Amino acid sequence: xxxxxxxxxxxxxxxxxxxxxxxxxxxxxxxxxxxxxxxxxxxxxxxxxxxxxxxxxxxxxxxxxxxxxxxxxxxxxxxxxxxxxxxxxxxxxxxxxxxxxxxxxxxxxxxxxxxxxxxxxxxxxxxxxxxxxxxxxxxxxxxxxxxxxxxxxxxxxxxxxxxxxxxxxxxxxxxxxxxxxxxxxxxxxxxxxxxxxxxxxxxxxxxxxxxxxxxxxxxxxxxxxxxxxxxxxxxxxxxxxxxxxxxxxxxxxxxxxxxxxxxxxxxxxxxxxxxxxxxxxxxxxxxxxxxxxxxxxxxxxxxxxxxxxxxxxxxxxxxxxxxxxxxxxxxxxxxxxxxxxxxxxxxxxxxxxxxxxxxxxxxxxxxxxx
Length: 370
Ligand code: SF4
What we know:
- By secondary structure, the protein is of the alpha/beta class.
- It folds into two domains: 5-247, Rossmann fold; 272-368, Orthogonal Bundle (Tyrosyl-Transfer RNA Synthetase), CATH 1.10.240.10.
- The protein is built from 16 helices and nine strands.
- The protein has helices at 18-25, 32-40, 47-50, 60-68, 87-102, 113-120, 124-141, 157-167, 172-179, 184-198, 220-232, 274-283, 292-298, 306-315, 319-330, 336-368; strands at residues 5-6, 14-15, 28-29, 54-58, 73-79, 106-111, 148-152, 210-216, 243-247.
- The chain has a seven-stranded mixed sheet, with helices on both faces. It has a two-stranded antiparallel ribbon with strand order 1-2.
- Strand 5 (73-79), helix 5 and strand 6 (106-111) form a beta-alpha-beta unit.
- Helix 12 crosses helix 16 (336-368) and helix 14 (306-315) packs across helix 16.
């Protein structure tokens, strides 16, 4: 049977074959040409780019052109405030913080409370409290407030005005082809997201510019919809199509294709008690053999191991150290028990530092979102 790829920005996505996404969706590769150009432009590469976790894009080369010409660049992202930050949200947050710094870009960060209302039935006041916690995480991870615009979808009239205009320019069949059969609330949430993505190009924000959206590849339908809408609203707005850079999914601790807020026991949240986290890492799916003897003889399988992924995606910054873990696992020098203990220490140290820092940002997030 052919490997299955399901991209659903509103639900569960599965990717069994990343390579096929290029031909299925017409994505461009983050290849050596892109990385070498970044180096030529003196843009340092973060671990997501160095390790191939950011693997695909749309028009990211145009973002680099704009950077080379010294033009304004916007980075757009957001969160649906339904739950605390987990490692997937951390990944997106770190990417926007990185691009804010290296491209000297302005960040537009949307709190998608309207989507939380229509998709998850979370009342606006409740999602506000969750958003305060999320924004405190974002600030503690390093977002610079000075060059950011953080807003609630429900309060940003410019976004909903755009969504209304878009609703006249698209058919129900078109939305169905992108998202499958959904209720009207979700279709309108998609149009609202398109408004979020294009708002940075309005005159109120210094007009036309390239907007980069760093997201998981499951969000590609939103990017395609928005790029399509740009052409359809030409008589009203002279927008540039948004660019996107896509990362691979971080799997759940049990090895399912994506960490999801919908299954808390298989995810690691940034608010988790470090003692609990240590237990979760020890129970996570590894790539070990049935016995220590077999592992010493045949070596482990880091490609299948979520614990190795924790190190690769999130917690081991040094490429040399990561390479050492991989090598020792492959040639049987490393056993899963000790390895999990070592990687759990990285995770716990990060969480303790982050949680201390975050405490300082809670009152700031409350003021920002009041
Ligand atoms: Fe994973 Fe470490 Fe076991 Fe290798 S030794 S399979 S990296 S837990």
